[in-house]
Amino acid sequence: MNELTINILRKQFNINEAVIAYVNEREKYILEKFKEIDNIKEYNQFKVIDAMQKCRLTSTDFNWTTGYGYGDVGREKVEEIYAKVFNTEDALVRPTIASGTHALTLTLSGILRPSDELIAITGAPYDTLQKVIGVKGDIPGNLMEYGIKYKEIPLVNNSIDVDKVLDSIGENTKLLLIQRSTGYSDRRALTIKEIETAVKAIKEVNNEVIIMVDNCYGEFLEHLEPTDVGVDIMAGSLIKNPGGGIALAGGYIVGKRDLVQLIANRLTAPGLGKDCGLTFGTTRTTLQGLFLAPHIVSEAVKGALLVAIVYKGLGFNVVPDIDDIRSDIIQGVELNSPKRVVEFCRGIQAASAVDSFVVPEAWEMPGYEDKVVMAAGGFIEGSSIELSADGPMREPYFVYYQGGLTYEHCKLGVLKSLNNLIEKNLIDISKIKN
Ligand SMILES: *Cc1c(COP(=O)(O)O)cnc(C)c1O
Q1: Which residue, of 37, 145, 234, 412, has the greatest Cβ tally within 10 A?
Q2: What's the domain range around 195?
Q3: 201 and 120 in one domain?
Q4: What does DSSP say about strands 372-376 and 388-392: parallel, antiparallel, or unpaired?
Q5: Which ligand 1 atom is at minimum distance from the Cα of 179?
């Protein structure tokens, strides 16, 4: 690191020189790993450009209409491009899908009918989905209230328990839900290979059951996506990976045409389906975000690796571990104390370009059971492909770090968070001095 860089970190960001030296030292151990990340980035960048070219993306696609949005060519082009990128028959990509949870909810409620059974085959799903399903919170309008049956099958050694799944499938079982990413748990993300193995084994015995993936945080982590390996329907958020930090809002759903149609009927109305719905001029940012996404994701993954190597060096359990295959952008660090989780997040917030002066507090976030602390100083509010960190206030006090539009910004986040933990006496400075 250049002397000028060290000086700006010391003088403008008030980072202890020992912290700078320590992070720079640890970084050396991961540089070799950046090559594989770059290989994946390269492939996905070409894949996205190819989809845009094949769909003949043109500047007039960025125009938009009003009212019903009939014949919004941009909207149709976006959906065609998403379907191509994710290798599916059809796609639904809308700025009016409020979040990842909304995209997943639409998918579930579009496909499931009263007395159908949903089985979560990767254990308890993401916090907000538990409320959607109705296993937590008892919120009016949940799926169980509509007579949908629900079961969970936990992972065994981080793998889908295929035999148990096959045993559990009954006459009414309609849909199996796989969550690729960590969520707020202590497991690493499922790899594409692992998803493929399970999907193939299940489909060999039962070709009727619909397999759905919650792909939040998983896009462009590997060469392939779950829909390349036999998954029927998949959903995610545009303010995570595929929005590339540029998409203003939205969610996507990709998969089999008949399923996407069912979901579109839930999004708009039976009879309207995909044919209407205004884009409010978001087509260009949605696609520019998708164009940038493979690159942005690679920056974020490098940042996650830096977090892992730094905190592993301090003796903390990190998930995924350094040599694990990464299939989401999340880096979990088991900090073992609520104070450390909060101060880690405050350090990340202090490294943000936007709202750096804000001090995060744990609060009752809508949709979550426990209080959650979040560092989120993004250009797009709540965007977690941007530098962010969060953690629920529960044992064993994991902090989840993700995003960062540039690796340099990730590094500043790592420096600020570690510096903050040391300043608050939550990590002993002697640990970083040798
Ligand atoms: C982020 C996320 C969701 C959806 O969250 P939103 O905040 O509603 O976008 C769902 N599942 C997983 C695994 C996630 O990471």
Answers
A1: 234
A2: 65-279
A3: yes
A4: antiparallel
A5: 13
Same domain, 311 and 334: yes
Q: Which of 107, 180, 181 most suits a substitution to test ligand 1, by most atoms within 8 Å of the C-beta?
A: 181
Residue 235, phi-psi category: left (phi > 0), alpha (psi -120 to 50), beta (remainder): beta
Query: Which atom of ligand 1 lies at the shortest distance from residue 181's CA?
Result: 13
> pLDDT tens, position by position, for the chain (434 residues)?
999 999 999 999 999 999 999 999 999 999 999 999 999 999 999 999 999 999 999 999 999 999 999 989 999 999 999 999 999 999 999 999 999 999 999 999 999 999 999 999 999 999 899 999 999 989 999 999 999 999 999 999 999 999 999 999 999 999 999 999 998 888 999 999 999 999 999 999 999 999 999 999 999 999 999 999 999 999 999 999 999 999 999 999 999 999 999 999 999 999 999 999 999 999 999 999 999 999 999 999 999 999 999 999 999 999 999 999 999 999 999 999 999 999 999 999 999 999 999 999 999 888 777 899 999 899 999 999 999 999 999 999 999 999 999 999 999 999 999 999 999 999 999 988 86
Indicate the residue type of 84.
K
Say if residue 259 is in the same domain as residue 326: no
Residue 183 CB less than 6 A away from ligand 1: yes
CA atoms within 13 A on the CB side of 200: 8
Q: Is the CB of 181 under 6 A from ligand 1?
A: yes
Length of the chain equals 434
Considering the domain architecture, whether residues 339 and 234 belong to the same structural domain is answered as no
d(CA 178, CA 161): 12
The identity of residue 191, as a single letter, is T
Q: Does one domain contain both 238 and 354?
A: no
What is the domain count for the chain? 2
Q: Is 101 a pocket residue for ligand 1 (Cβ < 6 Å)?
A: yes
Helix crossing, 407-423 with 283-313: angle to 10°?
A: 40
CATH number at residue 409: 3.90.1150.60
Hey, what are 423's tokens?
């300043």
213: CA distance to ligand 1 center in Å? 12
Q: Which atom of ligand 1 is nearest to the CA of 251?
A: 9
Whole-structure pTM value: 0.96
